[in-house]
Target: Response regulator transcription factor
Amino acid sequence: MMVETGRILVVDDDETVRDVVRRYLEAGGLQVEIAGDGAEALRAFALRPPDLVVLDVMMPGLNGLEVCRRLRQVSSVPVVLLTALGEEENRIAGLELGADDYVTKPFSPRELVLRVASVLRRARLPAAEPGPAEVADGNLRLRPGARSATLNGTELPLTAREFDLLAFFLAHPRIAFSRSDLLEKVWGWDFGDQSTVTVHVRRLREKIESEPAKPVRIATVWGVGYRYDPTGVIAS
Model:
């Protein structure tokens, strides 16, 4: 099974897990570097930033959540978390820190490879699908080809999923979407934890709304999901 090409940093304190993940990712055509703890992961990232990080949450010393937080201070590299089945609070915390996706342990290595491929593919999507050079809603501007967005002329520090979500909202203004709709259309998941959408919407509001607690652009449609309400006329 061939997936997107790229370099993956796999971080887990369990040698068996690291080896299994490495073998499956390499079988998919990916280059893999491994790290046994959080400190080693940060050193490896600083020396040669990868295209994606697979990061275990529960590690001794510098845990995965702290590693994710530090990575987000310097990079928007995609992060896929590995969490235990009962660690919902850690999954939510990881998403709030900027992780793009997660896989719960015990996991199917094939599922992990597919999730990694999906995140990589979406991070590179504009290169394969040309569109408008720029989409604007008042002081909010998004450039799909560059995968960048600005607010009042200042670059927004968006993760890959946050960018995808904003691009989708801008392309479909004034239409209400359920969380399951957004999981399918933005994440490409037929099923999954809908709290993933909730957390990403909250993070996106914090970056594009002047008052995130009283959002103007991303409205909550009670009993349905979310709707993007332009502050002006969306132009492209």
In short: Confidence is low (pLDDT under 50) at residues 126-130. Residues 109-123 form the longest helix (15 residues). The first strand starts at residue 7 and ends at 11. Residues 28 and 83 are 22 Å apart (CA to CA).
